[in-house]
């Protein structure tokens, strides 16, 4: 039974005018077997939430707590968070020139498992994962994210998800910039992941489109640094029809 618990999380970033509070008390519990979608307008703090849980140094936690299976995530280094079972697919994956996809994946897998994967099965696993995401085996010789199309970046993130197989996956706008075929392929990857025992998914998205392929158990409306409303999948339909306006009107943006 694994569970990610975010309680009253406050996060600031350093700006030229001093610290600016972005997250203003986020509370969210993702138990295993659950998929939660976070939907919100641009600039509401969705990526800040993802980065803060993953441990990006740019973000300062000023209050609240994050625990995974009762362990204090905020005390962990980024590496320790990954080893504990947290995975983040970034909205804008970074280029790592000179590091091949194959090396990157192997290094990540070794760091997370504490030992290098067995070479024979590993190569098979990598090729299988790339194949599931409709990426050619030669893809593994390319530099990480360098010159990747938007769709290739996102598919590569989901290949990582498959190979690293964390407990909780935080997917930040994994649907953005995908054409309909790539969206299906990526969604199938996420569905394979969450079809396993004991997995949690936090799916951050701007659009309801991906929720047709990945049905969430819970939908949270995220506005001005906090959860403004929570509900079931039907809340996404309502957002599609009505937009975020009614929430923005009530929030101090
Ligand atoms: N370094 C920074 N300096 C100033 N503002 C920042 C910084 N980083 C993020 N922000 C602000 O934090 C808010 C939330 O950003 P973000 O988490 O990326 O939102 P979302 O992912 O929901 O679009 C935005 O208003 C953004 O301008
Ligand atoms: Mg974002």
What does this structure look like?
Helix content is 35%, strand content 31%. The chain has 253 residues and is an alpha/beta fold. The protein has one domain: P-loop containing nucleotide triphosphate hydrolases (Rossmann fold), CATH 3.40.50. A hairpin with a 2-residue loop joins β4 and β5. The mean pLDDT is 94. It binds adenosine-5'-diphosphate and magnesium ion (MG). Adenosine-5'-diphosphate binds next to β1, β2 and α1. The site of magnesium ion has 5 residues, from α1.
Q: For this structure, what is the CATH homologous superfamily? A: P-loop containing nucleotide triphosphate hydrolases
Briefly note the structural class of the backbone: alpha/beta
What is the CATH architecture term? 3-Layer(aba) Sandwich
Q: Quote the beta fraction.
A: 25-35%
Low-confidence parts, pLDDT < 50 over ≥5 residues? none
Quickly count the domains: 1
Extended strand count: 12
Average residue pLDDT: 94
Proportion of helical residues: 25-40%
Order of helices and strands: EEEHEEHEEHHEHEHEEEHH
CATH class: Alpha Beta
As a whole number of angstroms, the C-alpha radius of gyration is 18 Å
GO molecular function: ATP binding; ATP hydrolysis activity
Keywords: ATP-binding, Nucleotide-binding
Pfam families: ABC_tran
Family: Belongs to the ABC transporter superfamily. Ycf16 family.
Compact summary:
The chain contains 8 helices and 12 strands. By secondary structure, the protein is an alpha/beta fold.
